[in-house]
Amino acid sequence: MIAHWDSKYETNISEIDSQHKKLFRLINNIETVYEENKHHLSGKSKVLLDAVSELEDYTLSHFLIEERVMELNQYPNLEAHINQHNKFTDKILDLKNRLGQGNLLSNDELLDTFFKDLIDFLRAWLTNHILKEDLDYKPFIKFSI
Ligand SMILES: [Fe+2]
Fold first, then answer.
1. Which residues, by Cβ under 5 Å, contact ligand 1, an ion?
2. How far apart are CA 46 and CA 50, in angstroms?
3. The pTM is what?
4. What is the distance in A from the centroid of ligand 1 to the CA of 115?
5. Where in the numbering of this chain does the Hemerythrin-like domain appear (predicted)?
6. Which of 20, 52, 85, 111 could be bridged to 63 by S-S, CB 3.0 to 4.6 A?
7. C-alpha span between 43 and 55 (Å, rounded)
8. How many A from CA of 79 to the centre of ligand 1?
9. Which DSSP symbol is given to 26?
10. What kind of architecture, by CATH, is found in domain 13-140?
């Protein structure tokens, strides 16, 4: 199932909303690769590696901007929010490391489990983090960057 952007995700900070839209695209891209290659995922190992690297780059630049905006607006739950970001970053790094271990990239069964974990994790982030923690700072933002 493809994740659809909806106005309920809007923070009304244009830079952050466009980055969140990009995350939707990255997730949908991963899901499409998975759905279309379910029976021979090892043939798509390069695409998977690229997708995880793109997620890592996205994460670093997006969190930096979000954290700067929250700081600039003296958002009171900044520290807890940064902790959530750090956990997400750790998970992405962990996934990236798993890809480099053993024969994962050539094993269809292990890749299937890997893809399912990755997709579940990303989907949970959309509903648990963007719809909760990110919307929580929305009323505090008076200045953008
Ligand atoms: Fe956030």
1. 66, 134
2. 6
3. 0.91
4. 23
5. 12-140
6. 85
7. 20
8. 11
9. H
10. Up-down Bundle (1.20)
DSSP string covering 74-117: T-TTHHHHHHHHHHHHHHHHHHHHHHTSTTGGG-HHHHHHHHHH
Tokens standing for 118? Answer: 């990755």
Instruction: Give the tokens for residue 12.
Output: 């009304």
Say which amino acid occupies 68. Answer: R
Token pair in block for residue 142: 């008076």
**Side chain identity, residue 8:** K
Residue type, 102: G
